[in-house]
Each structure stands twice: as C-alpha cells, then as structure tokens.
Amino acid sequence: MDNRSPLLKRDGTQKLLASLISIVIGLIFGSILVAVVGLLSKDIGGKGIWDGIRLIFIGLFSKTRDTAGNLTWGFNSTNFGNMLFRATPLIMTGLSVAVSQKTGLFNIGAPGQYLMGTLVSLMIALGVPTTAIPPVIVWLLAFLGGMLAGALWGAIPGMLKAFLNINEVIACIMTNWIAAVLVSWAFSAAKFSVVRGQYFNQTDWTNASGTFQNIAEGTKSSYVYKTIWNNVATPKLGLDKIFPNSQVNAGILIAILIAIAMFVLINKTTFGFQLKACGANRHAARYVGIKDKNNIVYSMAIAGALAAGGAALYTLAGNTEFSWNTYQKLPAIGFNGIPVALLATNNPIGVIFSGIFMAMLNIVGTQLTKFTAYNEYITDVIIAAIVYLSAFALVIRMMFNGSKKKAHAAEPAPAVAEPAEPATEPIADAGEDPAPDAAVEEEGGENA
Amino acid sequence: MTFLIQQTLLFSIPLMIVALAGVFSERSGVINLALEGIMIMGAFIGVMAVRILQGLPVFEEAFANNQYFKLQLMEILVMLIAAVGGAIFSLLLSFASINLKADQTIGGTALNMLAPAIVLFLVRIIANQNTLNMLDGSNSADWFMLKKKMFGYGAKEQMGFIGRTLLDKTYLATYIVIFVFILLSIILYKTRFGLRLRSCGENPQAADSLGISVVKMRYSGVTISGALAGMGGFVYALTTQGCTCNGDVAGFGFLALAVMIFGNWKPLNIALASLLFGLFKCISAGYSSLDINGDGKFLLADIGISAYVYLLLPYVITLIVLALTSKSSRAPKAEGIPYDKGKR
Q1: Partners of A323 in the beta sheet?
Q2: pLDDT at B286 over 90
Q3: Alpha helices of A165-222 — where are they, by DSSP H?
Q4: Pick the residue with more confidence: B228 or A104?
C-alpha cells in the first residue's frame, strides 16, 4: 500500500484516473439509456438490450451475426483499421482544442477551421494537375495549404479576443457558421479549368460545368470529387496489410507525429512556456514582458492549423467524400475535438489515446446501427456524458486526495507506465475498481 | 410589409425569450452556454407533448369541431410542459456549475452535445427517421395558427392592416412570449427577488454577507433560464418549423447569446436587438419572396446577389456589432466564477 500511494498522489495519475472514471460512467450511462429504451420499446426485447450493452463496451471486437442470429466476437481488422482512420482527424481537432486551452482559450471554433481546411485542401488537391506536378507534391501542397487556411481562420477569433476583448466562444461560434456558409458558397460557384489527372481524363466529365461537384457519378452531385481522381491520396505504408479491408492510411502516423511535436512545443520550448504563461495569468505574463495579445493570436492560429490539418488528412485519404452543402450543419468531428482534449486533460500525448478512444466509440455506433434496433446517436450521448463529467473532473480528483479508502484503486496505474496500449485497454481494467465511485457520481448526476 | 413584419416577429420572438433566459442565468453569475441545448430539449419535449395530447379524445374532438379555444389552451399547456422540461434539463448545468464548481463553459458545452444526441437517439427510435412530426401528418398551422375566421371574419372579408399583420396567421405563443418577457423583466428590476438575483452576479460575497443565499439565487437564475429557453425552443419549433423536431435549432441558442451581449444584458435593449436580428434572419430565409412595398416585385431577389450573402448576414453582422460594442459592453462582474465563500 505504502509504496503505491505516492503514485496515486501524483498529478498525472489522478488526471488519468479521473478520465477513466468519466469514461466508465459515460459507458454505463449509455448502457442505462439502451436498457431503458429497450424496456419501454415493444420490439427490442431482452436479447436486443443485452446485445446493445455488450456492443457499447466491446463493440470494437464484434464481427458479425451468425446464422443463428447471435453476435460473434473476435479481432476485426476492418473495425481496427477504420478506428485508426477515424481517429486521425479526431486527434488533430483534439490537439487543436488542447493547445488553445493551454493559453486559456476555449476553441469551440474547430468545426469552422476544419471546414476551411477541407475547402482549401480539396481545391488544391483537385485543382493542381498531377500530370504536370507529381502527386506527392500536390498532396503536400494541399495539406500545408489546408493548414494555412485553418491558421488564418483560427486567427480571426484570436484577434477579436486579443485586441477587442470579444469572448472567444461567441466569436468562434459565429466564425463557424460563417465558414459553413462560405464553404457551401465556394463549392457551389468555384470552377477549375486546368489539365486533369488520368482519372479525370478517363471519364466523360469534360462536358461537365467544371465545378468541383461530382457530377460524373450521377447521384453524387451533392459531394465533391474524390481526390483519388486526381491521383492524390495519402500513402498506406503497408498499414492496409496489417488491417485488411479498412480505410487506414499513413495519416494516423502523421497525426501522432504532430501530437508529439506539439508536446515538445508546449513543454520544451520558450514559445510554449509563453503560451502557457498567458493561459495561467495573462496579466502576470504581460508584467514579465510576454506579449500576451500576440500569443493569444498565435495560439488560436496554431489551433486552427491543427484542426484544418485534421480535415486535410481526412479528405486527402483519397476515397472520402465531402458533402459540400454544409451551411446548415457543422462537422461533428470539429466539436468532438472538445471531449478528446478534455479526456486527455489537454496533454498532447494523451490526445492520441483519447482520440483513438473516441474513434472506437464511433465504430461502436456503427456496429450498433448495423446489428441492433439502436442507432449511432448513442455514441454522441456517451460522449456528451463524458464531457459533462470532465467538467467536474476536478471534483473527482479531489475525492482521491480527500479519502484514504481510494488507495486500493491503483489497478489502472500500470496504464501510465505503458501507454503504448490502445485506449481500449485501460477501459477494460478500469471497469473493476472505480466502478463504486462511478455509481455514486451517476446518482448525483441523475438526481440533479 | 405584412409578410415582412410577421416573418421578422417569427424569428425575433424565440431569440428574445432565449436571450432573456441568458440574462437570468448570467445576472445570477452563471454563464449559460447551454441555451442551444436546452432549446433543442424544449423543442423535443414540446413536440412529444403535442403528439401525446393530439391523441387524447378531448383534443381530437376539439380539432374536429373547430373548438379553437381548447386548441389554444393545448398550445399554452405544451408551452408550459416545454418550459418545465427545459428547467429540469438545466438543473444538470446548475448542479455542475454551482454545487460542483465545475467549469461553466465546459458544462454548457456538454449540455449542448447531450441534448441533440439524446433527442436524435430517441427520435430515430420513435419515428424511424431523423425528424419527429405531429401525428398523422397533421400540421401546426391547422391546429394552432390564429386565423381571421376565428375573429368572425368570412372568407371574402378583409381584416384591417393591424388585424392582417398582428392577428391573422399568427400564433398565440408570440403574444404569450411577449407577455412573459415583460413580466420577467419587471421581476428582474422591480422586485426584491430580482435585486438579490442581480447582486449575486455582481458581488456574491457581499450578497452572502447580507444573508442572501448565493446558491439558491443562482439555482433560481439558471432554472428560470432553463424554463425560458425550453419554452423558446418549443416556440421556435412551433412557429418556424411547423411543430417538428430534428434535434437542431439552427444555432438560435448561440445567436440569442450574441443578442444578449449586444443588448448589454438589459431587457429593453435585448428586445430591440432581437428585432434587428429577426429582421436579418427573415431576410436570409425569405429574401427571394420578400415584397416590401407590395408592388409585386421582389426587390432583394432582383438585385441578383448570391443567396449565400444573405445567409452570411446574421453572423457577420453579429461579429461586427460585437466588435463595435465591445468597449461599452458591461457583463455581470461575477459571471463564470464559481462562488467561493472564502474568497474576497
């Protein structure tokens, strides 16, 4: 017991435990909802409820329904590969929210920055002819161009905050909707008339109006062309051999590298220290000669670049489709950066794992829709519950310091030592011990 | 002109009441970013209540026999139900931000994510699609809209300008909201309760030292806020969405926050600000059929500016207005800061 308690008292351990508890409560909340809806509904029944709850917890390992109608379980390469693929933009938007949070800014503008990134990287990836310039260069241009667009878009609320003292939350929300309209407008009107890559030349698309809308495939005109048509696609680097039948590509590796770079930037450089100082106490930072206003703008610009980078990695995968008429709907990936960052307590390395965890929940939602009467929105319910709990993660952490009896809850501690395990691992063992706390908290939330 | 005024009111009224909801919460010291989520919840609960009440024999008969009075009563009842639902949902925010002293921005964001998630989850299961409609394809205009024949006018008779604009083809909900808005504004400024509530948003320590319970005041502030936002959500769904619910209120909750800031946290300014925003929303929604002086020409459509410009207008103007007014804007001093007795 004694040699364990220092570990428990450590800040990082407590943050991790608080996040794990939030996750477990979130999953339990989702299960309760599934059970209640199942009991109230006439046609779901006991087996449906049991399937639903099992899928919520271990949906990643579900394979298919056998002929008897029972779910089969095991390693599912499609699920794993798609999880990594969907984690890529989530990690990036999570980093976006986390970095701005370090400077004390709540970047709820990630959806708008994400959209601007999508717009610019798609236009570059489709507009620059790969017959003249190698696809790799075009890919790089599109990726960097997207990030630049996001940086500029993120800098707008940053400047409004720094120089005019407008609440960044309101400014971000307005720029989100403005971005949504601008993107629809751009794709509805913009034309490109350069020499196209081989895919374009093969089809009879030259008679088309020349916009980015995919009119080549009859019913897809509400989508933009896939970038693979211009030979631009993120390389797979053999990951598709490890996870066959999935969309995984090297984007996940790029996202992880960027996360590590952000960790170094925030924790090991003077610039990172200045950003954090502005977040901790803006006035004190100014007193020691840090340019607080500039740093706020930089922080939001970096956040914007990261969110847009996520968009670029997602769209440049080559086979993803972007529905361009976005003016009524903001992309969920942008908003989901918030829970990713919260779960990771704004630690860039932690964002990698929480991003993968969120992607896993996404897979769970897909599997639920496929195999049961429930639908993918349960994922959003669970994520929202987790965000709600993260809001008072501080209280959960105080419980550890306050009461001695929590000492035996050291079970998930090894997860700190070896964080190389995918995020699914800690959840499984966290299910054992923190559960009693979970129940207490759950009731608190319900009674409220 | 009639069309312009009616449409503007349609968009202004939910904005107005939800912005007032924000005032009650922030004046008591809690930032209520969850207005959007509470509106979505209120809209869902309202539409569900309508569906349930529609099935009751008493209202079925009332509809069949054109007993307008009963139908209007049903509308008021549903507004109350939506308000209660919104108030209950907002307790989640109060609990996190007042009892647990959590970050209010994150708590609000959580509610904003929770509401559409739960609503869409349930709507998909109930309706097997992403939109919850009224029962059996009936629509809100038939059930709840005020029409000139209710005031004794025949099909051929014309009402006067005032009657045409403010009575024919309007909803009773509009006037109830205006009444509630005035009533609550008076409560906020002219009663002891209102003074106490506001003091908790400015200097809770001083309020506490005078024996006012900050926790109670903040709970009432957020709960009133939730009730108003819930009601506003249903009014939005009823008047602009034809009493349907798809887990979305098109950013009205956030727009209401902007209206509140623009209106400097004061009811009268908010009423005017929401009329202004309602006008822009109205232009962006219906510019192509807007006939301002009644000469049969659609002026805005004829100019030939892209429709997207009108869609951008409300948001761009919000930002510009916020930029211009930020120097004189005066937020409640203690908003967003959890109350800590020991702090000075």
Answers
A1: A223
A2: no
A3: 168-189, 198-202
A4: B228
pLDDT per residue over A415-434, tens digit each? 333 333 343 333 333 333 33
Looking up tokens 């209950």, which residue turns up? Answer: B88
Residue A188 with chain B: CB contacts under 8 Å? 308
Place of tokens 């939506």: B82
What the block records as the tokens of A23 is 């996750």
Q: Which residues make Cβ contacts (< 8 Å) with residue A105, sequence separation at least 6? A: A158, A161, A168, A279, A296, A299, A300, A303
Two tokens, residue A188? 């509805």
* Cα dihedral A245→A247→A249→A253 (10° resolution): -110
Which residue out of B35, B322, B329 would a mutagenesis test of the A interface target, given it has the greatest number of A Cβ atoms within 10 Å? B322
Q: Chain A, 404-433: which have a CB under 8 Å from a chain B CB?
A: none
The answer to whether the beta carbons of residues B310 and B300 sit under 8 Å apart is: yes
**Could you give the CA distance from residue B296 to residue B306 in angstroms, rounded to a whole number?**
21
- Yes or no, beta carbons of B102 and A170 under 8 Å apart: no
The burial of B147, by beta-carbon neighbours within 10 Å (0-12 exposed, 13-18 middle, 19 or more buried), is given as: middle
Residue to test with chain B: of A161, A163, A167, most B Cβ within 10 A: A167
**Tokens 């374009």 -> residue:** A200
Q: Which domains does chain A have, with CATH numbers?
A: 14-75+373-399 (no CATH), 87-355 (1.10.3470)
Residue A338 near chain B (CB below 8 Å): yes
pTM of the model: 0.84
Q: Is the model more confident about A418 or about B23? A: B23
Question: For B86-145, what is each residue's pLDDT tens digit?
Answer: 999 999 999 999 988 888 888 898 999 999 999 999 998 888 888 888 887 777 777 888
Nearest to B308 among A37, A184, A374 (CB): A184
Q: Name the helix (H) or strand (E) containing A445.
A: helix A435-447
Of A160, A328, A391, which has the smallest distance from its Cβ to B107's Cβ?
Answer: A391
* Residues 6+ positions from A224 with CB-CB distance below 8 Å: A122, A126, A187, A212, A213, A214, A321, A322, A324
A107 Cα to chain B: minimum distance (Å) = 11
In chain A, which residues have their Cβ closer than 8 Å to the Cβ of B312? 178, 181-182
Q: What is the ipTM for the molecules in this complex?
A: 0.85
For the packed helices B172-190 and B68-94, what is the interaxial angle rounded to 10 degrees?
40
CB pair distance less than 8 Å for B319 and A106: no
* Number of A–B residue contacts, CB under 8 Å: 145
End-to-end Cα, chain A, rounded Å = 36
Q: Is the pLDDT of residue A305 over 90?
A: yes
CB contact under 8 A, A392 and B318: no
Decide: helix, strand or coil at residue B156: coil
Q: How far is CA A192 from CA A116, B44, B49, B116, in A?
A: 18, 44, 51, 38
Of B109, B125, B323, the CB nearest to A37: B125
| A64 CB within 8 Å of a chain B CB | no
User: How far apart (Å, rounded) are the C-alpha atoms in residues B116 and B38?
Assistant: 9
Distance CA B158, CA B153 (A): 8
Of the candidates B122, B120, B85, the residue with the CA atom closest to the CA atom of residue A37: B122
